[in-house]
Amino acid sequence: MPDFSRMPGLIYIDLSWNQFTGKISSNKLSDKITTIDLSYNRLSGSIPKSFSNLPSLQLLSLQNNSLNGSIPASIWQNKSFSATARLLVDLRYNLLSDISGNPSPPGHVTLRLQGNPVCNHANMQNILHFCDSDAGGNGTYDGSTNSTACPAQACPEYYEYVPQVPTCFCAAPIRIGYRLKSPSFTYFPPYKIAFESYITQALHMELYQLFIDSYAWEEGPRLRMYLKLFPPISNHTFNASELRWIRHIYTWWHFPGSDLFGPYELLNFTLQGPYSLVNLDSGKKGVSKGLLAAILIGAVFCAVTTSMAVTLLIVRRKNELRRVSGKNLSSKISIKIDGVREFTFKEMSKATSNFSPLAQVGQGGYGKVYRGVLEDNTLVAVKRAEEGSLQGTREFLTEIQLLSRLHHRNLVSLIGYCGEGGEQMLIYEFMSNGTLRDWLSGKCERTLNFVTRLRVALGASKGILYLHTEANPPIFHRDIKASNILLDCNLVAKVADFGLSRFAPVLDDEGSVPGQVSTVVRGTPGYLDPEYFLTHKVTDKSDVYSLGVVFLELLTGVPPISHGKNLVREVSAAYQSGSLLGIIDSRMGVYPSECIERLIELAVRCCEDKPEMRPGMLEVVRELEDVMQMVPESMTMSDTTSVRSHGSSTSSSTSLMSGIPKCARTSSDVSGSYLTSTILPSANPR
Which positions bind ATP (predicted)? Predict the structure, then answer.
């Protein structure tokens, strides 16, 4: 069982339904912790007394383990409860024999003891009440804290029981449709408490006044949710001024900025029942028509008399602002970036036939990628951000700044950019054979054999090694995945997409990257380093983990997450059981068994949970070079020109799609197949 005591900002632990063994650490957790769910594991030993000193704790679930000894009543005795605070302690189905301290928790505490030896002590005060199979329900924590059963349908129409108070209190909620447009996470439960605090603090409300009725992920990814806001328990409804103020907060974006939750949009603000007649447009009623007419006439008169004097000034000012805003981004970048060409919007429109759908070769959260032809007949890839894109100005500037100083055979070269008229376009060298993910998913007309896959792995590794050790300053990529490894006309692998990259700390005297970079977790599920996800500290070993997942994809042809299966876990299990032949992609053809074994061993080492157990990039490159030396010469010679694109240039922008292999025309992420499957279903682009 891991020790989380060194994480002072930790608020939520859910490690249920695993196979953790041993004792729970006795070290004290963060005072901010609200939820500890270690249920359905194989934990033994006693309940740590350190759980008694957690002032914010709301849920402690240890059910279905093998914990023994006494239950420390200090878990609830030492806790100061406010009017709305509550605590659920679920200890069912363990080996706990007694309770040390007062066995009668206060009304704000729900204690569940069914299935423990302590329930055999009938003479212990009130013990049977906590051992009753009906008292604790089914053990699912739904956020409701009512300690008594409320009468069904006892509230008037449009009124409901307030879910998060310990009494049966009826109140009329307002319903709000709300969407997070670009959150920095893809799994919401660990962030639920933080989100509730974020909303209620901005509205100057108590936590119990907010209830998340439902939520669902949408394409983007974006998180759509429906909220209920309840009045304080001293009232059954909000008054008109409170309603206007709440709507003002939502509609005028007065919530504080948050890297975690990102920007939002209000979908609906529903008032019904006692609120249906509230006038949200004015804080006053009964204003006379004469006064309104006088105000209107005065406003019109002022507008007419002043507009003639300032019209010319406004027009000139607007034209000036339009010119400045159209070139503002470009001017900022051109001052700092040397050797990178600045294109106009007109040039890019011409190169892509006015961004024709026929020229589109890819799409992601940032926007679309087009194949273009410059005036000198150079083939380029134009990455154009769309309005509302997940890639903002920061990522746009980051990628330009990084790529302008990077020059390596295995990194995609930046040719230029376009920032005119509010556009955000990056212009790269064109990679005619698309992404590695496309080839592995079966989209291409042909497939990659073993030697080609080995060369791709080595090329990508050399590109990452350059970022870690030779770039000045070193760079952590943070988003290494098969769809960010592109193949040129000779199937040379090149790493792309540096929008999430970060500069690393300065190298030490031994040439290694010391320390770590603290950052909001970004990246693609399935490729994320578990340590980075937990600590928000990214290191060079974070990139090694992601690259190890790519190695496993090369070996199996399967994406990292497919139908609920995790590729790293599946391969690790096969590796430990000695059944590796069942997971190798049959489409790669003949391969030397000793080379495959070395590659799998390397990939598994790269995907170790602990960063210190993973090899460095220099060791990865050397190991792949050693494997390449082991390949028979007959295989390497026959592979040189076995798979190539059908042409690499064209003379005009009107024939944008000529000579493009099938796999290079629609580049997108794929997310679905069982581990042993060799046919992958299609999926919509990110």
Answer: 383
